[in-house]
Amino acid sequence: MADKPKVIITCAVTGAIHTPTMSDHLPVTHDEIAGAAIEAAEAGAAILHLHTRDPVDFRPSVESEHYGSILARVKQSTNAVVNITTGGAPTMRIEERVKAAEHFSPEMCSLNMGSMNFAFHPLAARYESFKYDWEKPYIEGSEANIFRNTFADIKEAAERLAPHNVKFEHECYDVGHLYNLKFCMEIGLFKPPVFLQFVLGVLGGIGADIENLVFMKKTADKLLGDDYRWSVLAAGAAQMPLATAASQMGGNVRVGLEDSLFIRRGELATSNAEQVEKIRRIVEDLGSESQRRTKRARCSI
Ligand code: KMH
Ligand code: ZN
Q: Distance between CA atoms of 255 and 273, rounded to whole angstroms?
């Protein structure tokens, strides 16, 4: 009998978009982030995409000292691939965003493939009050904020992290970002096979529907041929439907509270692990196998 198709589940545990007011289940302390990551790995996540937060008011942080205890616990307790964000928060510049990856040399890092108005200001109207003073201006400010990822920024991240031998999760929020990646490969910044994360449903990027997913995939095929592997993250309500579709199209999937706070329409997820369990169940019910790693090694995707 033919081997079952394998699907890599990434879990993005806390991110920098959702704020403490939005869900009591969003892990925000270092202890909670580490615990949530470990639970997600136990539930079936092979890659853990990690951000950290300030320990005082839980705003997004990229400080290496705010990662230390999280990474130590995760490495001790799981075999999952550790993926540290270089996206940080959309308000931060690349120089600060790559520092933690330089410091810890993880197996993987995200790398955002274009500049955009990464906007989530409509979320502000959903809450009457906020737990922390920074939340409302941070959310509202995204209306006018440019998440800067110029070619120079991408080159800087690639060159600074080259000695660390990291595998990048190339985050592509729109079709143009695939062309940006192709250009960067042509000038030798990234070697195939590259690992793409198609990001659908962020305001400022491509919308989350099946036609757009097919378009992203066809464009990647045209530009990159066999030189890539891919995964999908869809923001909010589209998370599970598009992850399911991706898993049936030969792709991999990303879930986690960074990308959606919900387990189904109108119901908050109680944990990252709950989302991992759900997508794993779907993927396995549909005849694929979730890819796991039995022992810790350098990344070999
Ligand atoms: N929050 C995701 C939509 C990064 O960390 O590099 C984008 C993201 C960015 O994961
Ligand atoms: Zn992220």
A: 9
pLDDT at residue 300, as a whole number: 38
Answer yes or no: are the C-beta atoms of 24 and 127 closer than 8 Å: no
Q: Is 117 helix (H, G, I), strand (E, B) or coil?
A: coil
Alpha carbon nearest to ligand 1 atom 4, residue: 87
With a 6 Å cutoff on the Cβ, whether 202 touches ligand 1 is yes
The SS3 call for residue 196 is strand
Reduced to 3 DSSP states, what percent helix, strand and coil does the chain have, rounded to the nearest 5?
A: 40, 20, 40
Q: Closest Cα to residue 199, out of 220, 184, 182?
A: 220
Torsion of CA 112, 50, 141, 22, to 10 degrees: 140
Q: Which atom of ligand 1 is nearest to the CA of 12?
A: 10
Q: What is the pLDDT of residues 102-160, one digit of tens each?
A: 999 999 999 999 999 999 999 999 999 999 999 999 999 999 999 999 999 999 999 99
